[in-house]
Design a protein that fits this description.
The protein has 4 helices and no strands. By secondary structure, it is mostly helical. The chain has one domain (2-109): Up-down Bundle (3 helical TM bundles of succinate and fumarate reductases), CATH 1.20.1300.
């Protein structure tokens, strides 16, 4: 039952991330073609809670998605107890989310 829920959760995060990835790539292309440098990009994102919300959602979805994928790879590669895999999955998701949200905060709040 847990595996089915994780499967659905990973697919749901993929659905959330798909448009976010497209928007992110479009912004990158716009910035590169516009000749923006890092300082100019940071000046545009600083204080923007819209971009902060956008990238926070992106980070959370990517953290959950990646952790579930790593859980699957770990189970297929090493086997082991599902309880251990669950603990590692939660830890990986938490670390990824913490690091990503810290980066978002640094860009938006700086």
């Amino acid at each position: 039952m847990l595996d089915a829920r994780l499967f659905l959760l990973q697919r749901a995060t993929a659905i959330v991330m798909a448009p976010l990835v497209l928007i992110h790539l479009a912004v990158i292309i716009f910035a590169v073609r516009g000749g923006f440098d890092a300082a100019e990009i940071l000046s545009r994102t600083r204080g923007s809670w819209v971009w902060g919300g956008f990238y926070s959602l992106f980070v959370i979805a990517a953290s959950v998605h990646a952790a579930i994928g790593l859980r699957t790879i770990g189970f297929e590669t090493f086997g082991g107890s599902r309880r251990t895999l669950d603990v590692v999955t939660i830890a990986v998701a938490a670390v990824l989310a913490l690091l990503g949200l810290r980066a978002v905060f640094a860009v938006v709040a700086s």
